[in-house]
Design goal:
By secondary structure, the protein is α/β, with parallel strands linked by helices. It is built from 11 helices and 14 strands. The strands form 3 sheets. It has an 8-stranded mixed beta sheet, sandwiched between helices. Strands 11-12-13-14 form a 4-stranded parallel beta sheet, with helices on both faces. Strands 7-8 form a two-stranded antiparallel ribbon. Strand 5 and strand 6 form a beta hairpin. It starts with a helix and ends with a helix.
């Protein structure tokens, strides 16, 4: 008790003299499920059930989180990220905007499955209108596994979120001691801890036991500079992805047009190419008012305009650096604002 008294006396003296004690930053953890909240039926099972634990369980598993920030948690949904959909995206985005608009909240951390983390992250980076830090955290091993990586990822995710350098960088993805921009990150391996890579522009930074090191900022538009918003949206335009392959036909493209799809993304071979039959189907889709974006199944590089295929003649849009799944996200949001192909192409240059 005697050892505590000097600390209390110091605090009282500072308060009397008008010197305020520094308050810990407030971080809200928004949980959506995923492997980080998953459980195995047996200790050595490779399979598991995603979303078995609640957000408070995740927080309790990392007692030292309280040393970094004042932590609160909310369970938005509890699903495997393979089941992520437009409805949840809209719900999550609106909640992120609401939380970040609170003056006493410094940052948001989102727990999420890794399967579609890159898509959710990119979506949020386009529709959240705040410069406050947003960090997405997941894991490759379920919470019950030997050597579970979730607790370390969550701890480092909060450390990144409270770091002054995270402000204004848009949505960040944190796994395996690596920080990635959501726009750049992509999952590259089914099971390895270092599955996330940023093949075009490289990592946003690194972490080491809570220490944070940032690299260059992202030059493309996002968050507070974005023109997109979920305000007033109850649904998103239907956009489908078609994976190019040898002997690809046009039947599914024609079927998509018949279903009134508003957009199509081609995960093309090479630099966004496909068979003559598929390209003919895409050109006819454009004539029916469907927005068509060419991307590449190679997962890195630039699918530039009028390379391999003549976009000017076809009426198609080049995805530039965006892989097919992220091109779909941007096209959906672009279609909420315009159906003009030239303006949609500008979005792919800007975002």
């Amino acid at each position: 008790m005697k050892a505590v008294r000097p600390l209390l006396a110091l605090a009282l003296a500072l308060a009397i003299s008008g010197v305020a004690l520094a308050a810990k930053p407030k971080v809200v953890i928004l949980a959506t499920g995923g492997t980080i909240a998953g459980a195995q039926a047996e200790g050595q099972d490779a399979g598991y059930k995603s979303g078995s634990f609640q957000v408070q369980d995740l927080i309790k598993a990392v007692p030292k989180l309280g040393e970094l920030a004042d932590i609160t948690g909310e369970q938005v949904v509890n699903i495997g990220s393979q089941d992520m959909n437009n409805e949840v995206w809209l719900k999550l985005a609106k909640r992120v905007n609401e939380v970040l608009a609170q003056p006493d909240v410094n940052a948001v951390v989102i727990t999420h499955g890794t399967d579609t983390m890159e898509e959710t992250g990119y979506f949020l980076s386009l529709v959240t209108r705040s410069s406050k830090p947003m960090v997405m955290v997941g894991s490759m091993r379920p919470a019950t596994a030997t050597g579970a990586d979730g607790p370390a990822n969550l701890y480092n995710g909060v450390a990144v979120a409270v770091h002054p350098g995270a402000r204004g960088r848009g949505v960040l993805v944190l796994l395996n001691d690596e920080i990635h921009y959501a726009r750049e990150a992509t999952k590259t391996n089914t099971t390895q801890l270092d599955t996330f890579k940023s093949p075009n522009r490289g990592k946003a930074g690194m972490t080491n036991a809570g220490r944070v090191y940032f690299y260059d900022p992202l030059p493309t538009k996002h968050t507070s500079a974005s023109a997109f918003s979920v305000d007033g949206l109850s649904e998103l335009p239907r956009v489908e992805i078609f994976y190019a392959h040898a002997n690809m036909g046009r039947e599914y493209i024609d079927h998509c047009v018949a279903l009134k799809c508003q957009g199509i993304v081609l995960a093309g071979v090479g630099d966004g190419n496909a068979t003559k039959a598929a390209v003919s189907g895409l050109q006819d889709a454009v004539k029916q008012g469907v927005a068509v974006v060419r991307s590449s199944r190679t997962n890195s590089g630039i699918t530039d305009r009028n390379v391999e295929l003549n976009d000017d003649e076809l009426g198609t849009i080049a995805s530039m650096e965006l892989n097919p799944q992220k091109a779909r996200v941007l096209l959906m949001l672009g279609l909420t604002r315009t159906s003009d192909t030239k303006r949609l192409q500008e979005y792919f240059y800007e975002y």
